[in-house]
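Bumping with the actual sequence this time:
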Amino acid sequence: MSLYRRYSLPLLILILLSLFVLMAAYPQSSLNAGLRGLAIWWDVLFPSLFPFFVISELLLGFGIVHFIGALLDPLMQPLFRVPGCGGFVAAVSCASGYPIGAKLTAKLWEQRWITRIEGERLVAFTTSSDPIFLIGAVSVGFFHQPEIALVLGAAHYGGVLLIGLLMRFHGTRSGDADIHSRQPEPASGSTSDAKTSTSPARQPGQLRQALYAMHAARLEDGRPFGELLRHAITSSLRLIIVVGGLVVFFCVILEALTNSGLMSGLRLLTASLLTVCGLPPTLTESIVGGIFEVTLGAQAAGEATGAALPFKVAAAAFVLSWGGLSVHAQVASILNMTNLRYMPFLLARAAHGVISALLALLLWRPLMGQGSSPVFHPIYDITWSPGFSSTMLLQSLLLLACLLAGMLVLSCLSVGTSHLFAWWKRAYRQ
């Protein structure tokens, strides 16, 4: 640890100086890369993420997250070993994309609804791509084939479920893994209201427990709607600007490393690994670009030549699930304000990428009805600029509603099964 502290700062300074020299040596290409990253942020990320950032802040302030969390608690606890409020985080993250899952997880940690281990489990499987980007940008814009969205979505979100099931074993040796130091208490008010609000478990019925949890969260927040909206817009703007800055930064860094020739070694290593795994080496550009930035990797997967379409979709699934160092930097900047560790998130992203790629290849024939032999015709000119439309927003909100409805149905089934088992146990004893 002492060696790390001794040499990490000089090494970081050396890397930054080297990157500065490369950018100064190739100013025009660095400028073009920065403009390309800015266009990605303005055309894709800002319109698709900013509304969800604001809405999530408002839902947290009004206690809707806590209401849905109480309803989903019977499902989230046995499956993923996180509180029920994690179900809302998972649904919103699947609908709005990274890094909102990390943002909501950090908020829940600040309010002490989750412990460090539960937060690490939650952020590991709630960091996923949004359907707007998966369908509109990747399937339609980069691949020009909307039908592959079915396989891509099944592989990506199926990988989310598998990672969540795997991460339930994270922290099993920690003594305080599932012990909450403090549950949120309502603001000043009558003692009887506080007791009933903070003790929903004494109230009969799952719905009534959820209503009491929402009431307690709203009393604890206490801000009027105007102040809540202003704070939501302010904090969301700060976060979306950080997201855009990281995208532009990694685009410029990737261009500088490419101009220096340092990326040739990484491309050679990646091509060798793909060949050993029996995959087309023409996907090297997609994998290497996706390591740094998810949009660049997904676009390169659509433009790859000489590879069959299923392998291109598998490469895109890997890139979407890995998220790119740009997304990793966004999540790390959010986790830096908490005590949640970054290493479990890193390992989960790598596992999610591999699992999603394998699922894309396994699900190709059952979902598409064709094997891996057809080769996708090369795309030489992609001039897609998505913008923002109310249809995309409505589709994303519809997906959010469907995810929440499905989780609520599973939660109700879990409660019914528990009651049935308890009744059978009592009858057996009698």
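The tokens above came from a reply further down the thread. Residues 138 and 298 are 6 Å apart (CA to CA).
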